[in-house]
User: Fold this.
Amino acid sequence: MTHLTRLTLDPRHTAVRKDLADVDSLHKTLMRLVPDNLGPHPRARAGLLFRLETGPEHVLLIQTAHQPDLNALPRRYGTAQTRNLASMFTALRPGMPVRYRITAAPTIARSAGTPHPHPVTGKRRGKTTPLTGDAADAWWHRRALAAGLEPLTSHATPRPFPRKDHSRIGPYTLTQFEGHARITDTDLLTTAVTHGIGKAKNYGAGLLSLAPAQP
Assistant:
């Protein structure tokens, strides 16, 4: 069963300061919450998604496919509350109004001039390019609809990648989208929440949060 953990970090902790400054280090710390020996794609197998919330406190939202092992975190790293999302999934209904929030990495595969298509898929390899502004908004609208969610309002805010050497992480930039929406397909939405949306999930992208909203 999918679990969501709200972890309030202690900014005085040496490990916390290190992780807040470098998303690679943060990802390694959070992988300690899940079992070992999960094969070649451990993050995906563990269902690990996370998002660093903005505000006066340093809060991490962490989603895992199973109960996380919080004892694996450094001592006094933070204070955690974990809940099972089964009741939330059960409550979802088509037409239900919700508030949503997601930090995502909008991208598009642009033609790289590859002359020959892939022998199996028939597709030409494209160069992954980050999207910003109106293009990012359009990307989110498409991905939300494909996830069983019809956005009614949307506010987009650029978000930085924590990176100790200030270098860019691959072809990705982060944008936080939040607003109100209407559920159109509960199966698609459950899958999207469980597995995340878009790329750069190792770096704090893709976790979709939902809350009830007034009609």
Notes: Helices lie at 14-21, 23-30, 42-46, 86-91, 133-146, 186-195.
